[in-house]
Design brief:
- It contains ten helices and five strands; from the N terminus they run βαβαβαβαβαααααα.
- Helix 3 links the parallel strand 3 and strand 4.
- By secondary structure, it is an alpha/beta fold.
- It has two domains: 133 residues, Rossmann fold, CATH 3.40.50; 65 residues.
- The chain has a five-stranded parallel beta sheet with strand order 2-1-3-4-5, with helices on both faces.
- The longest helix is centred in the C-terminal third of the chain and has 18 residues.
- The two termini are 15 Å apart.
- The radius of gyration is 18 Å and the shape is elongated.
């Protein structure tokens, strides 16, 4: 029996995570809320084979430390990271064995994004519902909109500049678009595009769980 511990709930709701992994035979999956400093020490008592870090706290509590992750890796446990805190830590520890997955990880690993603030969101501590939009998600959406000829490069730069000027708990698409010079028709097109495209942090989380599922089945 393979035991997996997954820290999520924000980028990917628990029920949607279960839809991906819980059908895998000979696997026990434990789903936990976003990781904070000290959680990995507790997790080690459960003797996991795999730990997947997706979401983690940044400001509410101390963030999970590099030494904690290295201790887990040194015990031969596979550690994956994606989407949010997982992507950030994987970009810092991939040369030491942590496995990074997805767009957000690649943005950090290549140096395109450097600040923790880019993946930070305000959340409801009870429901884990996101109450703001992370900058990295906005960057992905607006860049894709340029590729689809919905925005020009200068319009994308304007939107990102507006978003960056907002404190992360207050970032959202409605405010960013309302402060921009885009006409109402184009704002409507972008809103529809956002709905159709979805959130990249969620896509990355799903990609990570599908990767784990595939490796377990092969």
């Amino acid at each position: 029996m393979t035991k997996i511990i997954i820290y999520t709930g924000l980028s990917l709701p628990f029920e949607e995570a279960k839809d991906i992994l819980d059908s895998t035979e000979e696997v026990e999956v434990i789903y936990k809320r976003p990781i904070k400093r000290g959680d990995l020490g507790i997790a080690l008592r459960e003797n996991p084979d795999i730990i997947a870090i997706i979401d983690g706290v940044f400001h509410q509590n101390s963030a999970v430390g590099h030494k904690e992750i290295l201790e887990v890796l040194n015990k031969g446990i596979k550690v994956y990271g994606a989407s949010s805190m997982g992507a950030l830590r994987a970009s810092e520890l991939d040369s030491l064995g942590m496995i990074g997955v997805g767009y957000c990880y690649e943005q950090y690993a290549t140096g395109e994004v450097e600040s923790d603030d880019d993946v930070a969101v305000m959340l409801d501590s009870e429901t884990l519902e996101a109450l703001s939009v992370p900058l990295i998600s906005m960057k992905y959406i607006f860049t894709k909109a340029v590729e689809e000829d919905l925005l020009t490069e200068s319009e994308k730069d304007e939107l990102l500049s507006i978003a960056k000027s907002e404190f992360y708990p207050k970032r959202n698409y409605a405010t960013t678009l309302s402060k921009s010079s885009l006409d109402e028709h184009k704002k409507g097109e972008i809103i529809n595009f956002i709905r159709e495209t979805g959130d990249i942090k969620k896509h990355d989380a799903e990609k990570l769980l599908h990767l784990i599922k595939s490796e377990l089945e092969n």
